[in-house]
Amino acid sequence: MNQPLAGYAPAPVTARMENHGDHMLKVAMQTGNDLLARVGSMIAYEGFIQYEPNPPAVRQIARDWATGEGAPLMKCSGDGLLHLADYGANVVVLNLNGEGISVNATNLLAFDAGLTWGVERVKGLAKFAGQGLWNTKISGQGWVALTSRGKPIVVDCGGGDDETYVDPDALVAWSPNLKVKGKRSFRAQSLIGRGSGEAYQMAFSGQGIVVVQPSEDSTDRLRVRG
C-alpha cells in the first residue's frame, strides 16, 4: 500500500521554510527560533511543538490595530517539523535578507518571530478611500510565507518611469520602498469595495516587486475605517 503513495512523502528538510507541493508550507522548528503563524493553519507536525494563541507580542501590536486590520496569530515553538496550510491556497515562501515586504493581512500565513513587524497605513491612498489602506509590514533577516488564491504573478517594477497598476482586491504584497498612489478610472460611486470591479487601481513605481493573485479577495480592502 505504501508504494503508490511514495511520491507524497515529505522531502528531506533543506531550509527553515519551504513548500511541500504548491499548497503546503513545511517549517523546520528549532528551540529558540519561534514562529508566528495564522491561527488554525497547523495541519500536521512531528516532534514537540507548542502553540500559544494571541501571545503578548501580538497583543502589544494589536493595541495599535484600531482599524481592525490584521490576522489572528499564534506563536509556535519547539523542535520538529511543522506543516501549515490555508484552505488549499498556494503558498509563497520568501527569505528576507534585510529587506522588507508589505503584506495584505489576509495573505499572511507565517513568519519568523524575530522579524520586525507591525501594521502601517499605506501612504498616498487616504484621500481615495476614507482612512486609507492598512497593511502588515515585515522586515529584517528571516523567513515569511504568504498565501495566494491561485498561482501568483510577481511583477518587477524595475525602477523605470512606467507605473504598474493593480486591482487592490487581487493584491497580495509589495516592496515597501515602492511609491504607491491611487488611480480612479470610472465613477466615484464605485470607489469603495469591488463595485464595477476595475474603477479603482493602485499604482506602483520605483524599484521593487508586486505580488498579485489571480483571484479577487472577498473582503473590501478599501472600506472606510474609523
From TrEMBL:
It comes from the Bacteria. SUPFAM superfamilies: TRAP-like. This is AIM24 family protein. It comes from Streptomyces pratens.
